[in-house]
Structures are given as structure tokens and as C-alpha cells.
Specification:
mainly beta; Immunoglobulin-like; 3-stranded antiparallel sheet; 11 strands; 44% strand
């Protein structure tokens, strides 16, 4: 019931500097649980923003009244990576020792926000649901931890895909839950949901 809402939410996105990335933002209105209406959208050219500083942007909504006020900072990300199995960070003894030293008891209070490091190996899926008429799926896997999100490549026409990728995340809250979701790529349409598993960090 507000025309001037304040969310005060922070989100982290990861992108590679060799890409031309646009940040797409949509504002929606909810009437009830079933009905939603688009109130407007806007874009930010991430590559045009200078790094290592916070930008206060007032973005008018396209073809709709109103604007969004946002703080956007582009900075080198640390601790987040995607790699093949053969070059995973904890597979390198030197890197493993460096990480162990970083999180040893005597360094616990050096950086209060840096509380941990998570490495996830996504190997394969087995007997997935067939989402296409041909009895196959085009699966990819999305990993989410807090506001961090990374994903695998798509394996086409396969119900038993193998990704063999290693993902690393910095842990910001030990009570977070790692959510791993498998989707079927569906061209220009939204991807189809094929399954999900949730793993509380405290259970690892």
C-alpha cells in the first residue's frame, strides 16, 4: 500500500569484464497471491560504471511513471569462481594450505565478515524429468548461497547430464542454505523446473 516503497536490500551479482552486461531491473505490483502487474523497468550499463566506487543512481522507469533510487558499486569479487575439476582450488595443496591458514583460529577476528569458504563440485544428475516432446531435456544447474548465484553450462538432449564443474563461494552467514536447482533450458521462454535440493551450511 505504498507509492514510495523503501526496500533497503543488497544483492551481489558476478560478471566477467569482457562481457557487455546490462543490469535489467523490473518493478512489479502484487494485488494478491495470483495477480501481478509490471509497474516499469529500467537498465544500467554495468560496463560504463567506474570501478571501486559507489554510484548513486536515480533511474526513471521506461514508459511508466516513477523512478528507482539505487546504490551500485562495481568491485573485483573475491572468493567466487567457476572452474573445471582438474583445477579446483582445494585440489591444489598450496592453495588449500593458504585457505586453511586464512581460517585458522588465530586469524578468526582479522576480518569479521570473512567467516568461511565453500567449495561445491557439481558432477552430474541422474534420471531427470523429460521436459521436451522428444523425451529429453536441456538441463543446467543453478547454485544459490545467500544473494550469490552461479550456474553451469547447459547439456543438451540429455536426462543424465555431466557438468563436472567446481564452484566456490565466500560464506557471509553460517546460517545460510545452499540451494541447488536444475532447470530445463527452453529457448526464449522461462526455463522449466526439474528439481531442487537445499543444504544448510550447518549440516556440512
Amino acid at each position: 500500500k505504498s507509492a514510495n516503497p523503501q526496500w533497503r536490500e543488497q544483492f551481489d551479482f558476478h560478471y566477467f569484464s569482457d562481457r557487455k552486461d546490462m543490469l535489467d531491473i523490473e518493478v512489479w505490483r502484487k494485488d494478491n497471491k495470483k495477480h501481478e502487474e509490471l509497474l516499469g523497468m529500467c537498465q544500467v550499463d554495468v560496463t560504463a560504471l567506474p570501478t571501486k566506487q559507489t554510484h548513486c543512481l536515480e533511474l526513471p522507469l521506461e514508459k511508466h511513471p516513477g523512478s528507482l533510487l539505487m546504490l551500485i558499486a562495481v568491485a573485483p569479487c573475491t572468493g567466487v569462481s567457476i572452474s573445471d575439476l582438474c583445477v579446483c582450488p582445494l585440489g591444489d595443496p598450496t592453495e588449500r594450505q593458504r585457505i586453511s591458514q586464512r581460517y585458522c583460529i588465530k586469524n578468526s577476528f582479522r576480518d569479521i565478515k570473512d567467516i568461511g569458504f565453500l567449495q561445491v563440485k557439481v558432477l552430474k544428475a541422474v534420471d531427470l524429468l523429460a521436459a521436451d516432446f522428444a523425451g529429453k531435456s536441456d538441463p543446467f544447474c543453478v547454485l544459490e548461497l545467500g544473494n550469490d548465484s552461479l550456474q553451469t553450462h547447459t547439456v543438451y538432449k540429455n536426462l543424465n547430464p555431466e557438468w563436472n564443474k567446481v564452484f566456490t563461494f565466500p560464506i557471509k552467514d553460517i546460517h545460510d542454505v545452499l540451494e541447488v536447482t536444475v532447470f530445463d533450458e527452453d529457448g526464449d521462454k522461462p526455463p522449466d523446473f526439474l528439481g531442487k535440493v537445499a543444504i544448510p551450511l550447518l549440516s556440512v
